[in-house]
Amino acid sequence: ENDSAETGWIGGVYGKLPISYESSNLISFHDTGGILFLLKHLTEHKDTRNHSQYYDLYNQAKRGLKSLSNAYYSQQNSASASIISGSSSLNFVLKHNGSRLKEVEEVVSRFQSEEVPCGDIFNGLAGIGLMLASFSDTADGLLKIIYHKISNDKQLSNLSSDGIAHGNLGIIWAKFRISYALGNLEECRDLFKQTLQISFPNTVNASGWCNGNAGLLMVLAEMARTLKEQLNLYELAKKSIILPENGPVDLSICHGVAGVLQSLLFAHEAFGDSWYLSLANQYWLNALDLANAHGFYTGENNRDYLLGYFLGWSGVADSALLLEMSNNGEHVWFPINLSSVAYQQNNVYKEYKECVH
């Protein structure tokens, strides 16, 4: 391998608005920066990990993303308060294997003023807290500052939905993870009970990860596993797999098939229950059959998000690869859980008493 070679992607869309979550030139985790997670999983999958070209491409892509980041985020403040876009998200992409995200920690100081709103999980301090709480070397004092801020931001009580991305569930998720990192299990149990009260309609538009039942499935699975609570989420999983009867199907991560797939696989990983894996396999086949018969799109109808992770093909491909790895009995790490590798290893991975059938 050429140790200086770099590979990078500057994403594009067809449509009038080429900006998603203020991603400068679309290189963030939300967009083409997320391609690194697909390449990372290819280096870990037992069917491909001995193929040196994947290691070469992964290392080249890391160098390329650093160069793009240095070019576009030289001020280190463009959309930095978002865990899915801007410089903070790229720190997560490049350092999710570590124990600390120092550059992201520095963003918190900007929120010390009472006048600065917390935003929501995708565009503000709550999302920063969600991610930082999963890194073991984040200082308790910093997490306490974030918790206090998001607990006292009156605007957070007026969020327009209950979902993860821009709603109440995302805020509860962040508070749970911060409370767990701080050792406040009583608060964690209270937040768990609150989450159990959230429900979404039994419809295709409420099935997705960012806005509905699949996201609720992932959050409840994480909470239950972390608190060692026995929880049957079968009915919620079934509400997550509703597909349109006809017409094109959204294959993307954010509110489409790929995000539901990762949530089902996450539940399988958390509970060690092969029922969720069987459901994931059947759902994926049904979705592909529907796409073959009636067409598909990624992200939004009539707008083709090309390579990005949340609304494009790299997220779809990575989710399919995670399904294959899970079918092979491999432990997998889920990017859309928005947490470090160590956090998922310590809090989510099932013991291997029960294995894939």
Relevant terms:
two-stranded parallel sheet, 14 helices, mainly alpha, two-stranded antiparallel sheet, 357 residues
Provide a descriptive summary of the structure in words.
With 357 residues, the protein is an all-alpha fold. Helices cover 48% and strands 2% of the residues. The chain is built from 14 helices and 4 strands. Strand 3 and strand 4 (303-304) form a beta hairpin.
A few lines on this structure:
The protein is mostly helical and 357 residues long.
Strand content: under 5%
Question: What does the average pLDDT come to?
Answer: 89
Number of E-type strands:
4
Roughly how many Å apart are the termini?
39 Å
The radius of gyration computed from the alpha-carbon positions, rounded to a whole number of angstroms, is 19 Å
Structural class: mainly alpha
Describe the strand arrangement of the main beta sheet, using strand numbers: 1-2
Poorly predicted parts? 352-357
Spell out the helices and strands N to C. Answer: HHHHHHHHHHEHHEEEHH
Overall shape? globular
Helicity level: 40-55%
Query: What is the count of DSSP helices, taking H or I runs of 4+ residues?
Result: 14
Q: What kind of sheet is the major sheet?
A: 2 strands, parallel
